[in-house]
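As a warm-up, study this chain.
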Amino acid sequence: MLKILSLWLVLFLSGCGYNTLQQQDEQIKAAWAEVVNQYQRRADLVPNLVEVVKGYAAHEKEVLAQVTQARAKVGSIQATPELLADPGAFARFQAAQGELSSALARLLAVVENYPQLKADALFRDLQAQLEGTENRITVARNRYIQAVQAYNVTVRSFPTNLTAKLFGFEVKPNFGVENERAISIAPKVDFGVHPR
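Now compare it with the structure written out below.
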């Protein structure tokens, strides 16, 4: 009887999905670490970018202050793996990163008014690094999204969902679109050709 019970227990545990949940949870943590790494890289570039722009566009204090404040807000959020278990904290992290992205976009729009700044080699280098980092952020976020999707499907699928409930595995939050209403509006294109 003990052998039959042991065999049944081994078969049950091998098919319960516990190891799969552990593996996918670790994949999420690794993907999250890469997201945070790329966001940190961007945050590290911001002070140098602001200093270079200050030299050419000192009277753009409001935009420079917004970028600095947004970076400080990003830096104040501890992006630990535990943040993934708190949807509210995750939303605050995502909102802070969105604010920094918006502030940087405004800063780069201001730069268009300063041809000498655009020609500065240090600025061009920082801008190229920032663009590369934004691409890395997109790739890292995509990997995180895929890892969370696989994990969430496992957590919600039978019979693994029973194991998930038993051991406290819950659905994890994922990145979303920051402003769905804004992206649903088609952009207006104007090539500067106006009828006379």
